[in-house]
Design brief:
The protein is built from 3 helices and 5 strands. It is α+β, with helices and mostly antiparallel strands. The protein has a single domain, classed as YaeB-like fold, CATH 3.30.2310. A 5-stranded mixed β-sheet has the order 1-5-4-3-2.
Length: about 100
Amino acid sequence: MPTRVSELLLPLTAIDKLGARSISVSEVREVPWNGPVMIRNPAAHTADRRLLLGKTKGGRCLRLVIEATDEPTTWLVISGSESSTRERKIIEAQP
């Protein structure tokens, strides 16, 4: 069964990192509702950390680094950035 994301928790450190990349909290909150794709994070040292690739309502493609919490559908945002060309292709391939 695919892993679901119902809620993203945004600590101040993540908000600061996202803001430095001109990504707003509201854009981050839109990603789970627009058909995101969760993939393994090749840079992570633990399986609890993944990448969430998705679009905002405005069509912006984002890459969010997220970490599992005790609640299976709630994830902690670590950081984020604009999606790479490869990641955008993964997002666009979604129905």
